[in-house]
Amino acid sequence: MESSINKIFRGDRVIWGVFLFLCLVSIIEVYSASAMLTFNTNYWSPILRHVMFLLGGTFVVLFFHNIKAKYFSLIGIFLIFAWGLLLAVQLWGIRLNDSARWLSIFGLRFQPSEIAKLCLIVFTAFTLSKKKNESDDMLTFWTILIATLITCGLIVLDNGSTALLLFGVVIVMMFIGQISGKRLGLLIAVLVAVGGISVSILMVTPDTTLEKVFPKALTWKNRLFGSSTEINVTDPAFRIDDKNFQESHGYIAIANGGILGRFPGNSTERDILPQAYSDFIYAIIIEEMGLIIGGLGVLLLYIILFIRSGIIAKRSEKNFSKYVVIGCSLMLVSQALTNMAVAVGLIPVTGQPMPLMSRGGTSTLITCVYFGIILSVSRFDDPKGIAQDQAIEQEFNDAEAGLAPALDRKQITDEQYESNN
Hints:
The protein is built from 16 helices and three strands. The two termini are 32 Å apart. The chain has a three-stranded antiparallel beta sheet with strand order 1-2-3, covered by helices on one side. Helix 4 (79-92) runs parallel beside helix 6 (137-155), helix 5 (112-129) runs antiparallel to helix 13 (319-343) and helix 14 (362-380) packs across helix 15. It is mostly helical. It has helices at residues 2-8, 13-33, 45-64, 79-92, 112-129, 137-155, 160-176, 181-204, 207-213, 215-226, 245-257, 281-315, 319-343, 362-380, 383-400, 414-420, and strands at 94-96, 99-105, 108-110. It has one domain (2-420). Helix content is 66%, strand content 3%. The longest helix is centred in the last third of the chain and has 35 residues, at 281-315.
């Protein structure tokens, strides 16, 4: 039995552990946070939907972690196809809250931006891996930059925070990929200048004009400047209104949780806080599981994911594998940190779900693709993972033949790997 489990769940055990813990916490908290969705439907419907996506996502992880990492470069080819989907969502997308983020094809509803993010990260990793010397630096830089500008330019029309986050991940990937610091510095300077000019335009443009020309810009303005003043819920003159409703109830949820939390199922803000099961899931986690177990525990899981992915990338023998692991882990962790920062009031509301934790379809499945890619690299391109994979295969063959293994091959620790290399 144990050998069969080892044969199915291959790759880095720490990454698998993080994945399974995130799924477990997600099921508990989304079940509680989705209570407001059950008023006009079957009580079990929201959580069953989420569990089905998590189960489907687990099969996605298993599928991708059985594919050798070199084949993932083919995903980058679909970047042009992703651009077409992003254009299609602007023309025929489903509009909710003044944003067209979802596309429905033959009854299948999904977010093209999630697909575009994955394709761009893989494309960037592949392009960086082909850079052989300094003479290739300019071509690599402009190839990645043009692809990124097109992708983020299409995403920013309805999801500015996702575009900014994706652009940031690509810049970090280029830095790690040893693109000229001078070029990256100039790019960042240009971005800062463009950002400053854009913010200035938002400040001086009347709301009525923004609403007529580009309604989404009005949303950005409200989020940027509507949250610029400190929210002090203890102030007797404080009033919760439409501008601070989400942030205020997020703070109340966190304050209710305290150190130990109210325990799962006892949240009071889940029925008040909009998107409690998605954008503000972290606030509900802290309210129910407390600051230590819920807040710091979930944060620690993502930090472990990032550190472990870095170790896998460092040990990988192929450049593409290194960069794609870095890109996938950066996307997952930066998105999680953004969600947490919104919940605790460090940044304005962005609408970023927490990977695996938040209720969602497309985001959950694409997140599982990221995990599958990381596990594949840990299995096929990490010398430690290769040795462990061979040991598991031998153990399974011995078990099938009825032979007792001569030694415990199931685990090869990092210490054993380092001492042998």
